[in-house]
Design brief:
Elements lengths: L12 H6 L3 E10 L7 E10 L5 H13 L4 E9 L17
Antiparallel strand pairs: 1-2, 1-3
């Protein structure tokens, strides 16, 4: 699903982040097609919606449908890039 603005233009990365998209990184381990006993690692990174991850699911569906290397495992990490400002109270004042 591609988000569009009211005038049907695709949203920018900033607009996606404001719509709660998060930077998602997937570490994909797959079996080498010619050497099934060996595993290869592929890193995928994109803005996606947690916890459903529609972009990652679309990519993994493409992988299983079109590529020869069978998937072994997928590890996913997701983090919001736009967060509220942090405030920390300081208990002392240093004067020079």
């Amino acid at each position: 699903m591609t988000l569009h603005s009211p005038d049907t233009r695709p949203l920018t990365d900033m607009a996606r982040q404001m719509a709660d998209y998060r930077l998602t990184t997937a570490t994909i381990l797959y079996h080498m097609p010619d050497h099934p006993g060996l595993l290869q690692e592929y890193i995928w990174q994109q803005l996606d919606l947690a916890p459903r991850f529609p972009e990652l699911r679309r990519f993994l569906d493409f992988w299983t449908r079109e590529l020869d290397g069978p998937l072994h495992s997928v590890r996913v990490a997701s983090a919001a890039l736009i967060t509220p400002a942090r405030y920390r109270s300081v208990d002392c004042l240093l004067v020079h």
